[in-house]
Amino acid sequence: MITIKARRPGKIVEIWLLAAAALTVVPAAQAIDPLEEPVSLKVSSFKVGSSWYVYGVTLGELLRKHFAEGSIVDTPPGGGGTANPLLVARGKADLGLGFGVVNNWAQKGQFFYDQPLGNIRGLVGGLDSYYLGITANEPQAPDTLEAYVQHRPDANVLLLKKGSFGSYAGEQVLDLVGASQEAVSSQGGNYTFTDFNTVKSAFASGRGDLFIQVMTRGQPTFTELAETRDISFLQLTDETLDGMEARYGWNTGTLPAGIYRSQELPLRLPLTTTSIIASAELDDSLAYGVVKTICENQDAFKAGHKALSEFDCATLAWNEELIGLPLHDGAARYYREQGWIQ
């Protein structure tokens, strides 16, 4: 279940964008029907081996199959959730995968972004569910993060590398519950910004107490931690969930029981979803063609990755709250034709 609430402003911080090679973008003035004329597109996803890379490859295969013969859809590894809105906005990619909550920050110029990216739009939203997963390295930990930080104020906290969406999200929730890096350090604990392999070895050796990271169902590192150790999955109180929504624009979702070993109860957690984004300057007919191809072949699209299994165009794809952006005009035209939006 997903609960959607309005997003509200926050502070502004900077993001550094790695240099990227210029990619070809279809000019806005050039009306193209991709079902009739060949087109060239590039899709920015994430690193090889990630869920998003598989999404991007699946999308590329689908578009090449249904677009006009001779169409080129390139799906190289991309910049990920924080970089993709910038790549799309600056014309370095035609399409990109984005997290709804991060897309919203990008449009408004909040947190990672030092200025608004007013020219990014949504094509298809609600592809999956990404929860902010919280695990404690002990079998009988308190069931909420708020209670855990009272139980272990000196915890050794593990987050992924600084600048990643996961680490930033972890810092957001820890700050809300009074366990900022400064607060934890003052109690004799520490924050370690690292990678998945180090997280697994730190849990195995007892050097890590708490790990927070965005996750889909069955995320490999969380799965391995649960299968190899007796750990606890934590949730958040309604007060903290409300804070994550009001201050940072997250949605709230319930991770069903039994997704991971020893996770016997459903968990209420911050949630966002993956969406496909484009520049507002992308040709309307091309945007329409991308959306039409996905929605009219969604079983083939969903077959690309198990995390896409609950995606449904009729109920999720057009939802601007999940996308975090206004719809592209071409996408909105398709959804209106189906009677899904006014």
Record the SSE blueprint.
Blueprint: E1 2-3, E2 40-44, H1 51-66, E3 72-74, H2 84-89, E4 95-99, H3 100-108, E5 120-124, E6 130-136, H4 145-151, E7 156-160, H5 165-176, H6 181-186, E8 190-194, H7 196-205, E9 210-215, H8 220-228, E10 232-233, H9 238-248, E11 251-255, E12 267-272, E13 274-279, H10 284-295, H11 298-302, H12 313-317, H13 320-323, H14 329-337
Parallel strand pairs: 2-3, 2-4, 7-8, 7-9
Antiparallel strand pairs: 1-11, 4-13, 5-13, 6-9, 6-10, 6-12, 11-12
Helix pairs in contact: 7-8, 10-14
How would you describe the overall organization of this protein?
There is one protein chain. This protein has 342 residues and is of the alpha/beta class. The protein has two domains: 32-128 and 273-337, Periplasmic binding protein-like II (D-Maltodextrin-Binding Protein, domain 2, 3-Layer(aba) Sandwich); 130-271, D-Maltodextrin-Binding Protein, domain 2, CATH 3.40.190. It is 35% helix and 18% strand. It contains 14 helices and 13 strands. The protein has helices at residues 51-66, 84-89, 100-108, 145-151, 165-176, 181-186, 196-205, 220-228, 238-248, 284-295, 298-302, 313-317, 320-323, 329-337, and strands at residues 2-3, 40-44, 72-74, 95-99, 120-124, 130-136, 156-160, 190-194, 210-215, 232-233, 251-255, 267-272, 274-279. The strands form two sheets. Strands 1, 6, 7, 8, 9, 10, 11 and 12 form an eight-stranded mixed β-sheet that branches. Helix 1 (51-66) links the parallel strand 2 and strand 3 (72-74).
